[in-house]
Every structure is written in C-alpha cells, then in structure tokens.
Amino acid sequence: MFDLQGYGHLLLDGAKLTLAVGVGAMVIAILIGLGASLCKLSGIAVLTGAAGVYTTVIRGIPELVLILLVYYGAPTLIQDVLKLMGMEVYVAVNPFIAGTLTIGFIYGAFATEVFRGAFLSVPKGQIEAARAYGMGGVLTFRRVILPQMWRFAIPGLGNVWMVLIKATALISVIQLPELMRNADIAARSTRKPFTCYFVASLIYLSITVLSLGFQQWAEKRAARGVRRA
Amino acid sequence: MDTEIIIESLPRLLDGALITMEITAISVVLGFILAIPLSVLRVSKNPFIRWPVYAFNFYFRGTPLLVQIFLIYYGSGQFQEFLSDWGLWRFFREAWFCAILSLTLNTAAYSCEIFRGGIEGVSFGEVEAARACGMSGSLLYRRIILPAALRIAWPAYTNEVVFLLQSSSLVSVITLMDITGVARVIAARSFAFYELFITAAIIYLVLVYGVLFVFKRVENKILCHLNPGAASS
Predict the structure, then answer these.
(1) Which of B78, B169, B197 lies closest to A194 in CB terms?
(2) Chain B neighbors of A76, CB-CB under 8 A
(3) Alpha-carbon span A177 to A162, nearest angstrom
(4) Is the Cβ of B78 closer than 8 Å to some Cβ of chain A?
(5) pLDDT at residue number B233
(6) Between B67, B79, B172, which is nearest A204 by CB?
(7) Are A174 and A99 in contact (CB under 8 A)?
(8) Contact, B217 vs B232, CB < 8 A?
(9) Residues 6+ apart with CB under 8 A from B127
C-alpha cells in the first residue's frame, strides 16, 4: 500500500525503541507516582509540601523544555558545579537514559494524582477491618490497601500511558533513533515525507489501539472480585 | 550560573512568549469554533455522520502532535504540485500556517470529545422541558444543550487549553521562534543551556498558572449557581 523503498524495517526498529522508552518511563512514573502520592497522603508537612511542589511545577512546564533541560542542561550544570569545586570533567548524557528518565519523571507527576485518588478510594471499612485483625500500618498497606488500590488506578494509569507513549516522540529531538527520528531519516532519504510520517503515525495509532484493548482486559481482571447488580 | 546571559536574553524570550501566546490563542479559538459543530455531529444518531467525526478524533488523539506537525509541514511538500495548482502552496510553505493548522486540528479533536462528554451529561429533564416548551433542533442546542454542556465541560476544557499552551513548544522544531525556539537558539550559541531552559520553564509556569487563574474565574462565574456559598466576586 505504501512504498517505503526498503525503509520499513527502520520504522519497525524505531517502534521497538519507542516501546522500550515508553515501558521504561512508565515503570519510573509508577514508582515515582507511588512514592509521591504516599508523601502527599502522609500528613507530614515537609513531604506533602515537597510532593505538592513536584506535581505543580512539572505539570506546568512543557515536556520538550524539560527534555532539553535534562539532555543539554544537566551535563553543563554538573560540569559548572564540579568546576566550582575545582574539578574539570566532561559529562555526556546518553539520549536513551536522558529521555526515559525525563519522560518517567514528568509522567510521575500525573501518576501521583492517579494514585492519590486511588488510595483514597479504598473503602475505610477495609482499613478498619485490617486494624481490627491486629495488622500494623505497613502490613495493612501491603496486604489490604495496595492490592485493592490498583482497581481504581488502572483507568487513570491507562490514560497516563496513552499520553506518555505519544510524548516519547519528543525524544527524537535529542537524536535517539526511536520511531519518530527514524521516520525523519526515512523521509529525508526517500523524499517521501508524507508517506513516511503517515506510516509512523499509523504505528503510533496501532500502539494506542493495542493499549486500549489491554487496558480493558486489565480493568476487567482487576474488577473480577466486584459484585455487579 | 551565568545570570548576565539570562538578563541579556530576557527581552528576546519575552518576544518568544508573545509568539507562544499568539499561536496558542489563535489555535484555541479556531479549535473551539471547529469543535462545537463537530461535537454535535459526534452525538448524531446517524452512524454515517457520527463515524467520520469519531475517526478524525481517533486519529488526532491517537498520534503524537509532533507527527501531525511534521505531516503537515514536511509532508505537504510531497503534494507541492497539487497544492500549487490550487493556490494553497504559499500557505503550506509557511511554518507559521502549518503550526496553527496542526495545533488547531489537534485541539479540535480533543475538545470535541470533551464537549461530547458535556452534551451527553446534560440532564434529560432539561431537554424534555425545552421540548415541552416547543424548542427543537438548532434552537434546543443553542439555548439549552450547548450552554449546559459547556458548563459541564469547562474544567476539562481548561486542562485542554493548558496542554495546548505547553504543546505549542513543539512549533520550535519547525523553526518558529516561540519561547522554546528562542531559548534553543541562544543556548546553542552561548552554551548557557540550563540557564536558558530554566528561564524558559519559569516563563511557561507563569503563563500556565495565569491561564488557570483566568479560566478558574470564568468557571466561578458560569458555575456560580452550583456553588452559592462562594458568590462570584
């Protein structure tokens, strides 16, 4: 249907890297989100404040600016700081690591809000019952709250994933050969920019469709213990 | 930290902020004008009307904005002859036009789904009462459904506008000199990377929370009947 002049495999390789960045960033986002949401709910002023600043600041800055800041800004910042301490070093950041960390760090802020809502959705009675059995704070969290929280978190996390996987296209700006960057290379070589970018967009679209299917399955599975009227 | 370069480049960054605001504002307005009729078609009972809108929304919501910008800006080059024949090429070779077009289509798709949720959220009683008063068709939409739907959709629409403001940073990739574009050019010349990107980030923060403040004021105004305690100021 589309003549990619032999550049199709390049796009598929790029799609693999896009998925790798996406999954890596999602894992980081979930870990940060869990930590920061617990900080927000901890009731300790310092932790609540720190988590609040994190979500407020990150959600107010474009992803592209943060990616550029981490990839170009962080190495020079570290060099400048070390120079003040009398050390001359050259720091370079790997684009895969910079991209994955930055995307994970950004969407951690969105995941924080999802987890905060999910933790609050676990019925109070469950926690009281766990306490009545003599479970302490950590044990209640691990055995009662954490397993039940996921059911409320999955729809929100699904949304975060959908936005996150599309945001990985921005990493092409720092030359990581993911789907968007490879589509760019193919577009320049074949002189068929529309065809190449359109095929890339269809690959993104199919990732979205597969993710939607997976999300529905996960939601059903997480809700299998819920009685329906 | 080189504070001199920050102060020196501040006027140019603020020029960039004007471009960012201009591009965002034009796209938001055009996207809104497009999204309202689309959302009415989107809830149509006729599948031949509903499905094309759904497909449009699905494509623009399911693919990255960067791909859409590249498709329109670079991709249009593949159809240069055709576009020239129709006298459209002089628009498509302008980065500014392509940026506005892609941001508008993108936000129209997201806003359309938000407004669809609003239309579906209008209580049936209101529609029934309007019908009983003899309203139908466009009058029903204009007087009852759309105002009520907009109220329901407003908080979600606020988020969409903020996202669009942030997404407008992508136009720097196609050579436009918005905040990000200015910061990238000066940083590449002076090697003052973190100074400029942090300054750019702060300008974005101010703009984002400014927009949120204004939209919250509008929300208090249009939703004051739901919240009598906090009378509109």
Answers:
(1) B78
(2) 191-194
(3) 20
(4) yes
(5) 44
(6) B67
(7) yes
(8) no
(9) B140, B144, B145
Read off the tokens for A150. Answer: 């996921």
Q: Are A227 and A188 in contact (CB under 8 A)?
A: no
CB-hemisphere CA count at 13 Å for B129? 8
* A91 has pLDDT over 80: no
Rounded distance between C-alpha atoms, residue A115 and residue A149, angstroms: 8
Closest by Cβ to B71, choosing from A64, A77, A197 = A197
Is the CB of A193 less than 8 angstroms away from the CB of B77?
A: yes
The complex scores an ipTM of: 0.88
Q: pLDDT by residue (tens digit) across B59-72?
A: 999 999 999 999 99
Average pLDDT, chain B: 91
Q: Which residues of A touch B76 (CB under 8 A)?
A: 194
The pLDDT tens digits for A121-163 are 999 999 999 999 999 888 998 999 988 898 899 999 999 999 9
CA-to-CA dists, residue A197 to A167, A204, B62, B76, B124, angstroms: 16, 10, 14, 11, 44
Instruction: List domains and CATH numbers for chain B.
Output: 3-226 (1.10.3720.10)
CATH class of A10-222: mainly alpha
CA distance A201 to chain B (A): 6
Check CB contact of B167 with chain A, cutoff 8 Å: yes
Could you tell me if B74 and A197 are in contact, meaning their C-beta atoms sit under 8 angstroms apart?
yes
Q: Do A77 and B194 touch (CB under 8 A)?
A: yes
